[in-house]
């Protein structure tokens, strides 16, 4: 059970171990979605807005053997997407992130269903493309669906933020036919509930090019803008 700013997140899997996905020292447990492309993800000891360009992050690389680091998608703020070597089904996920001005990233459950990360601080009219949105699908070159967050819980660029996500994976019969869609049971952004019981018909835009399945990796988007991550945990739900 994790408590975030007064919101208690109940785990349906009593006794299930919380897994640390990012060890704060290295990229162990992660790999590039496309290994043919340059991978500039680094582990930094500190990170903040670049004073010479507020759309980028400035950081210092973590010393060898040190711990407590931060995952950053390189000096250019654009590189390959990262996926975990671990795969998950139903799960509770905690992730903390930081973006500069006008930046864009996302957390993909099973590599397929995105909770959007965007520098949306202060925005009044919200869409699925704003921070915390469940991103839309893209079918026959048309945007389909998507769910905006209930409220804008975003903090200012350069401030650390958090998502706490309870996710139910799609269901399949013994023949592999899907019998139930994936579902975000709850999404909490900086301690504020922004989604409850939202069904997702299929993979959202810019997801992995793989079919829906009972298990899949967690994916962090690295190719849309500068972003930093820390404290990434997953607890399987049974």
Describe this structure in words.
Strand 10 and strand 11 form a beta hairpin. The strands form 5 sheets. Strands 3, 5, 6, 7, 9, 14, 17, 18 and 20 form a 9-stranded antiparallel sheet that branches. This protein has one domain (2-236): Jelly Rolls (Sandwich), CATH 2.60.120.560. With 238 residues, it is an all-beta fold. It starts with a strand and ends with a strand. It is globular and about 50 Å long. 39% of the residues are buried. The protein is built from no helices and 20 strands.
Task: Report the CATH superfamily.
Answer: Exo-inulinase, domain 1
- Output the CATH topology: Jelly Rolls
Question: Percentage of helical residues?
Answer: under 10%
Mean pLDDT across all amino acids: 93
The main sheet comes to:
9 strands, antiparallel
Number of strands: 20
How many alpha or pi helices? 0
Residue runs with pLDDT of under 50 for 5 or more positions: 3-14
What number of structural domains do the residues give? 1
Give the overall shape: globular
The value of Rg in angstroms is 17 Å
Topology:
Layout: E1 2-4, E2 7-9, E3 19-20, E4 30-32, E5 42-50, E6 53-61, E7 70-72, E8 82-88, E9 91-98, E10 104-109, E11 113-118, E12 137-139, E13 142-144, E14 161-168, E15 171-172, E16 178-180, E17 182-189, E18 192-200, E19 216-220, E20 228-236
Antiparallel strand pairs: 1-2, 3-20, 4-8, 5-6, 5-7, 7-20, 8-19, 9-14, 9-20, 10-11, 10-19, 12-13, 14-17, 15-16, 17-18
């Amino acid at each position: 059970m994790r408590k975030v700013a007064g919101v208690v997140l109940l785990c349906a899997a009593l006794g299930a171990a919380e897994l640390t996905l990012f060890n704060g020292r290295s990229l162990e447990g992660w790999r590039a979605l496309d290994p043919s492309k340059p991978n500039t993800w680094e582990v930094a000891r500190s990170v903040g807005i670049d004073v010479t360009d507020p759309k980028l992050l400035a950081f210092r690389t973590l010393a060898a053997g040190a711990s407590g680091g931060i995952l950053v998608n390189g000096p250019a703020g654009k590189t390959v997407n990262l996926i975990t070597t671990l795969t998950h089904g139903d799960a509770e996920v905690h992730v903390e992130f930081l973006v500069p001005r006008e930046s864009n990233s996302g957390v993909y459950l099973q590599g397929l269903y995105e909770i959007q990360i965007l520098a949306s601080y202060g925005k009044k009219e919200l869409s699925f493309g704003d921070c915390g949105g469940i991103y839309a699908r893209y079918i026959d070159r048309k945007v389909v669906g998507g769910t905006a967050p209930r409220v804008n819980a975003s903090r200012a660029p350069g401030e650390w933020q958090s998502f706490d996500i309870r996710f139910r994976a799609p269901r399949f019969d013994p023949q592999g036919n899907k019998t139930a869609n994936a579902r975000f049971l709850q999404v909490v952004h900086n301690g504020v509930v922004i989604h409850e019981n939202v069904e997702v018909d299929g993979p959202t835009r810019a997801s992995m090019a793989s079919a829906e399945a009972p298990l899949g990796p967690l994916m962090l988007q690295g190719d849309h803008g500068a972003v930093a991550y820390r404290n990434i945990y997953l607890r399987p739900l049974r």
